[in-house]
Design brief:
The N and C termini lie far apart (44 Å). The model has no long low-confidence stretch (mean pLDDT 94). By secondary structure, the protein is mainly beta. The protein has a 15-stranded parallel beta sheet that branches.
Length: 214
């Protein structure tokens, strides 16, 4: 029997305890089974979060270089959430409003983003496996130099997608309503619907050096 392609992401919900202990945010914090109410400048950079929940409204949430295992971010409102260089295993971002969600150079295994409005989502140079983005509105999606494996979009829209230097395997874009891709040739390894291919035909032709005239 031939293999089914694209292979869907293997995403599971974070394993969270029934009770969480409220905790304050601190740089290089080591938190286990904690709930954090984000406010103001929330600095959790270079910390370790295991079985934690983050929520609230903040000016900035800094998780740069942090390690996240079984974490849920829910109903968060913040202009900037930085997860640059983070190590992620089973993270769910549920609902909320985020200006910039920066996952540049992150190492990701199991990420679900659902029902979030995001102006700018960056996965530049990230290595991401098993990612699901669903019911989400994006203005700009940046994946330059990223390596994406088993990544799927469902009921999601984006104005512009930067795919320059993208390496993809089992990347399912059929559920992404995108207005433009900056480099259509970088979509090698991705799955598109026939309708999407029709809409992108002029860009494919231009990239191949074909002059199309009626």
């Amino acid at each position: 029997m031939p293999a089914i392609r694209p292979v869907p992401p293997r995403v599971s919900a974070p394993d969270l305890p029934d009770r969480l202990t409220p905790a304050a945010a601190a740089r290089r914090a080591d938190l286990i089974a904690a709930s954090v109410e984000c406010a103001g400048e929330t600095d959790l950079a270079h910390g370790s979060l295991e079985q934690c929940v983050l929520t609230g409204s903040a000016d900035r949430v800094d998780l740069t270089g942090s390690t996240l295992l079984d974490v849920r971010i829910e109903d968060l409102r913040a202009p900037v959430v930085s997860l640059r260089d983070a190590s992620i295993r089973r993270l769910r971002i549920d609902r909320g409003r985020i200006g910039t969600l920066d996952l540049s150079s992150a190492r990701i295994g199991e990420l679900e983003i659902r029902g979030v409005r995001i102006d700018y989502l960056s996965l530049g140079a990230a290595r991401a496996e098993d990612v699901l983005v669903a019911d989400t509105t994006l203005h700009t999606l940046d994946v330059p130099q990223a390596t994406l494996t088993r990544v799927r979009f469902d009921d999601t829209r984006a104005d512009e997608v930067d795919t320059r230097g993208l390496t993809a395997k089992d990347l399912d874009l059929r559920g992404l309503d995108a207005l433009a891709y900056l480099d259509v040739l970088a979509l090698r390894g991705a799955t598109l619907s026939s309708r999407q291919v029709e809409l992108l035909a002029p860009a494919f032709a231009a990239a191949a050096g074909i002059d199309v005239q009626d």
